[in-house]
Amino acid sequence: MKIDLEHSSNQIYKRRLWNHRIGILLSVLAMVVGVSFLIWILAVLIINGLGAIDTALFTHTTPAPGSEGGGLMNPIVGSLLMVGFATLISTPIGILAGIYLAEYGEESRFAQITRFVTDIMLSAPSIVIGLFVYAMYVANVRHFSGWAGSLAIALIAIPVVVRTTDNMLGLVPSSLREAAFALGAPRWKVATLVRLRAVKAGVVTGVLLAVARISGETAPLLFTALNNQFFSADMNSPMANLPVVIFQFAMSPYDNWRELAWGGALLITFSVLGLNILARLLVRTGKN
Predict the structure, then answer these.
(1) Which single residue of 65, 90, 137, 205 could bond 279 by disulfide (Cβ 3.0 to 4.6 Å)?
(2) Cβ within 8 Å of residue 182, ≥6 positions away
(3) Contact status, residue 149 vs residue 238, Cβ threshold 8 Å
(4) Lowest-confidence range among 104-108, 139-143, 238-242, 278-282?
(5) Do 129 and 31 lie in a common domain?
């Protein structure tokens, strides 16, 4: 009781307490403002997008200008193909590069440069990557294509997988590595069969987060895959995709086009939300 009285009479203690309370209050207010805007955006998206969710959305192609009805079958298939191939490209490259950085990051100058370039690519605007692929690939083959779109978004996904794999492998206790080395295991087996297996849930989480990251990218696809009003599974030709269709339909003068844009935005939002929930579940499973 005597200590409490001394503290209450201490001006420094009072000032620090009030600073603490003001800081907590400002933090809570900032959180409330951010969450309020997020809830507002999701509410508007759900209200406007639910009306477009029906069977026609998944079974009909995009409508011609001025026509009624239509759906998003061709951009949905196009997005799935491009994101799928981008994942196939980025996953092995990202995981192997992450293993190399985790094993040799402190010993090799090349590994340090690779980590630096990875950090730059993580923060690079996606439109810059789209322009790069356009200049290096599209301009040389002289046509837009789904392959160009997959390459562009794969370049966005690779650094995410690399950084996640590198960070996850860094969490493996050194005693586990030392025990494997003591048993005579070579370094490549320790890296792949011991360290990587110990954090496989975290690595898979990184892949899912990379997929969520590239699912809604629009700018790179404008310069690479462009768009296609008709259904096409030919990856060597211009291909429809949800982000670009949403971008074009949202600014159109046709009511059904704008409704389809809201429906496509809702699809992407809930797909990304589902991937993030799955990633969190995998992280929790890995910890248990």
Answers:
(1) 205
(2) none
(3) no
(4) 104-108
(5) no
**Per-residue buried b or exposed e for 270-283, using 16+ beta carbons within 10 Å of the residue's own CB:** ebbeebeebbeebb
Look up the pTM and report it. Answer: 0.85
Residue 42's φ and ψ, nearest 5 degrees, are: -65, -40
- Read off the pLDDT band of 8 (50, 70, 90): low
Q: Please give the Cα distance from 92 to 111 (Å, whole number).
A: 17
Please tell me the distance from the alpha carbon of residue 170 to that of residue 274, in angstroms, as a whole number: 27
Q: How far apart are the first and last CA of the chain?
A: 44
Confidence label for 1 from pLDDT (cuts 50, 70 and 90): very low
- Count of structural domains, the chain: 2
State both tokens at 232: 């096409």
Over residues 74-84, mean pLDDT? 94
Which token pair is 111?
């590994």
Contact 79, 215 (CB under 8 A): yes
The sign of the torsion formed by the CA atoms of 139, 140, 145, 147 equals negative
| Cα angle: 276, vertex 277, 282; to 5 degrees | 95
74 burial (CB, 10 Å; 0-12 / 13-18 / 19+) is buried
Same domain, 66 and 204: yes
Q: Is 177:190 a contact under the CB 8 Å cutoff?
A: yes
pLDDT at 131 over 90: yes
Spatial distance between the Cα atoms of 257 and 50, rounded to a whole number of angstroms: 14
- For 191, the domain range is 55-287
> Per-residue pLDDT averaged across 5-33, rounded?
83
If asked whether residues 118 and 257 sit together in one domain, one would say yes
